[in-house]
Amino acid sequence: MGSKSINNSSSSLPFGEGWSRAKPKVTLVGAGPGDPDLLTIKGAKALAEANVVLYDALANEEILAYAPKKSIKIFVGKRKGCHEYSQDQINQLIVDNALTYGTVVRLKGGDPFIFGRGSEEIEFVESFGIPTFVIPGISSSIAVPANQGISLTKRGVSESFWVITGTTSDRDLSNDVALAAQSTATVVILMGMSKLAQIVSLFQNESKGKTPVAIIQNGTMPNEKIGIGTIDSILQVAKDNKLSSPAIIVIGEVVRKRNKLKGFNKELACNKVCARE
Ligand SMILES: C[S@@+](CC[C@H](N)C(=O)[O-])C[C@H]1O[C@@H](n2cnc3c(N)ncnc32)[C@H](O)[C@@H]1O
To answer: Is-above-0.85 flag for pTM?
Structure first.
């Protein structure tokens, strides 16, 4: 899939040239957790009408095939060797492209409102009087565990779940992890791999060393990997199996009670379960 990179100054955008001056309109579309088939039908329909698509690293590029061939595709995620856009630059790019080309889709991994900065983007775009729409996506926080047979709530096992960021805007571990460690809920942590040791010690402080943990990397993708252990063993499991971001950490009894899906992921090239339970 070819993508076109443009710089962030509106004056450098090619004006007109074959583009109808459609009314500016911005739609935030949740791309789902990774498997392109987990995009919603409504998301695919929005893409089909897009003149410009701005997409993140966690939005599967195969999804861009739903956009018209002539549409402009701009990668604004973080990837080695690519220019890195600040959030301010991304906000400005969305507005510039909407004013120039009309219909813009902002394609974001998972759901735009789950640690996706979707609401900041909407506030910025709407301050220019440009109408915005949101098409929810399937968040990795629920879909990635589900794809491994982990039911975040389960009758008699877990009555609720927390979804927490491992890395706040100050780059710290969220204080909510310590609170969640005191609860009986299933705990789902996104962006937590660099803080795994801290997370482990918070749960150990609550005498939860034997609580089961799963780390799922690249969930729903062909290169999906899972490591299973307990609070006491998970650091070793992660190290032995070189588990890294993007990954979801699931902590709770539901990991032990996961469903062994018989038809599970047979088509996946790599579905390695590394356990130290
Ligand atoms: C900035 S957050 C965006 C979350 C997204 N809005 C959502 O609803 O899934 C990025 C984090 O989501 C998690 N993540 C997203 N996609 C994932 C996947 N396919 N497998 C594992 N973790 C994933 C990782 O923790 C990653 O660091």
So the answer is: yes
